[in-house]
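In the design runs reported in the main text, the only information available to the sequence generator was the tokenized backbone. The following block is the verbatim input for one such run; it is reproduced so that readers can re-run the procedure and compare outputs position by position.
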């Protein structure tokens, strides 16, 4: 089995990573608006992120 390690670093022209739980402070879902379209960001019981339209 091959294992790959990804290191998250912020480039000079990018914003630093944001902790997902800080976006969803009270609960497990958060509505996100992008150009008039609403999306739902959800943290599952397994700790995964799901973004749906």
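Verbatim output:
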């Amino acid at each position: 089995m091959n294992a790959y390690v990804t290191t998250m670093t912020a480039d000079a022209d990018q914003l630093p990573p944001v902790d997902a739980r800080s976006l969803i402070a009270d609960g497990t879902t958060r509505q996100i608006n992008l150009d008039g379209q609403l999306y739902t960001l959800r943290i599952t019981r397994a700790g995964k992120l799901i973004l749906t339209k």
